[in-house]
Amino acid sequence: MGSFDVPLAGERTQLDAFVEEYRGALEATLDGLTEEQARRRLVPSATTPLGLLKHVTWMQRVWFEECVGGATRRGLGLVQTPEASFRLTDDDTVATVTAAHRAACATARTAVAGLMLDDVVTGHRAGPRTLRWVYLQVLRELAHHCGHADILREQVRAG
User: Fold this and answer.
1) Which domains does the chain have, with CATH numbers?
2) pLDDT per residue as tens digits for the range 27-69
3) Contact of 86 with 45, CB cutoff 8 Å
4) Tens of pLDDT, residues 99-135
5) Whole-prediction pTM value?
6) Quick one: the chain helix, strand, coil %, rounded to 5?
7) Contact, 130 vs 117, CB < 8 A?
8) In sequence order, what are the residues at sequence separation of 6 or more whose Cβ sits closer than 8 angstroms to the Cβ of residue 41?
9) Shortest CA distance to 60 belongs to which of 85, 83, 84, 28?
10) Which DSSP symbol is given to 67?
């Protein structure tokens, strides 16, 4: 076994820890922001600090409730595209989006609780995936958007 090889139980534990770390970091980017600051658009796209948390909430629901759980986006009441998941409504506040994110995270934890990383899930539109693949995809997205959120927070706080 090489120095970077990790037993399966250790790998799952580490993947869970990384996902939880990025979930918390994304929520933390909203700490201390006003509602206006959280909604402020600083780039041409619909990307805002609050919109990023709304998007990663949607993303996790897609991967854990659709891909792992087998539900449909329509059945879940989700918008159909990633772009639409960034759009804020008048009802979206830091509190409501954070609560939705926490609920999606809790549902995700439940969806994977009895599964192993090598288990195959079949709810992905492009075909079966292993749970490991889903974890890596979610981790990639969370890390990617955490970087965006950090930059937007810095811009909002400076302006």
Assistant:
1) 8-158 (1.20.120.450)
2) 999 999 999 999 999 999 889 999 999 999 999 999 999 999 9
3) yes
4) 999 999 999 999 999 999 999 999 988 899 999 999 9
5) 0.91
6) 65, 5, 35
7) yes
8) 47, 48
9) 85
10) I
